[in-house]
Amino acid sequence: MINVFQPTLGKEELARLEKVFASNWIGKGKLVDEFEATFAKHLGSTPQKVLTTNCCSEGLFSSMHLCDVNPGDEVILPTISFVGAGNAVCANGSKMVLCDVDKRTLNARAEDIEKCITKKTKAILLLHFGGIPCEMDEIMALAKAYNLKVIEDCAAGVCSTYKGQALGTFGDMGMWSFDAMKILVCGDGAALHFRDEELRERASKWLYFGLETKSGYENSVAQKWWEFDISCFGHRAIMNDVTAAIALEQYKKLPMYMEKRAAVHAFYNENLKDISWLDLPIEIPQDCTSSYYFYHIQAKNGKRDLLAKYLRENNIYTTYRYYPLHRVPGYGVTGEFPNADYAADNTLCLPMHQSLSENDLALIVEKIKEFDKKYC
Q1: 59 in any annotated domain
Q2: By the 8 A CB rule, do 13 and 246 touch?
Q3: 98 membership: H or E segment, kind and range
């Protein structure tokens, strides 16, 4: 089966892990600090604004507390969002307000968001779909005009930029995922970016029990080093040196990953461009960059589901991300979302990862063209 997503791991990660094991310390330590500094430099930021956590969903949940979103406050997010975003808002006791999206990029636009703003709106929880940049100039101007917090879900945008600036560094808080199906992977893990250092310091305490005073080996001044205090009822949601070791080696490979993913994207564009019933992804503006996390096509003939079934029968796995939150009964949301509905009914994500071989790509294109002849 050709997978729709797939990590690329090698001997380098194993060698780095061997050193961690030899150190006899597998918890949070120097390698986590090293990765935070490395990723901060990658973002064009500083370590004082970057913090790691155990997963991107923890970042979403924690963003409610850290951005002072209270129960009863309204949070606007695109209906095409990861379920973790919706859960984060609802679990906080806040009101999830969904907006429509552009039907081709699947990103929310400023005009979609502004229609949903009320006096109770506190924040915008923005998804950059597949690492494709949203229109940040317009959205940030809107947030400033209405005094709204902006939280950026850049889970899939590890190398995405908007006009030269890394996605995730525009808002009050941004986050990236390093789970097993992302581009840079470490099993589970995530990075958070904060607009100011004070918020990062709050987050550091929130993600480790709210501890105010360090205990154990790190407390070198207290006579009773086992004593401590807390400032909030925080979580324990941290990376460790095992995951950081993998992440550091994966980071070295990011340029190669981006080159290969861009080549896959270009191959699909060239070889699928003449199929009349397919819409291919729109071109990324020249002043932006994508991480090429998804390659999503849209079937204009209503045969998306049949195509997905045909490809699966031929050992090619595809999917659709993300199922619109307004269609999830558990949220109880009603409203009209015509663009999101169109996207949900016609979009298909083809295999996209750096381990795809030339034979894999040739087979995928061959089977889509074969489907075209048989059913279209």
Answers
A1: yes
A2: yes
A3: strand 95-99
Instruction: Give residue-wise pLDDT tens across range 11-49.
Output: 999 999 999 999 999 999 999 999 999 999 999 999 999
Looking at the structure of the chain, the number of domains it has is 2
Tell me, yes or no, whether 301 and 324 share the same domain.
Answer: yes
Angle (CA) 39-40-43 rounded to 5° is 90
C-alpha triplet 257, 259, 261: angle, nearest 5°: 65
User: What is the pLDDT, as a whole number, of residue 218?
Assistant: 55
Q: Which of 250, 268, 303 is the endpoint of a domain?
A: 250
Predicted local confidence at residue 221, as pLDDT: 55
345-373 mean pLDDT? 98
Alpha-carbon distance of 299 to 192, in angstroms, equals: 36
**Of 250, 275, 308, which residue constitutes the final position of a domain?**
250
If pLDDT is split at 50, 70 and 90, which confidence band does 212 have?
Answer: confident
Same domain (yes/no): 73, 186: yes
Residue 230 shares a structural domain with residue 362: no
Sign, CA torsion 255/257/260/264: negative
Q: Is the pTM of this model over 0.90?
A: yes
**Structural domain harbouring 173:** 11-250
What percent of the chain shows pLDDT beyond 90? 95
Q: How far apart are CA 132 and CA 16, in angstroms?
A: 32
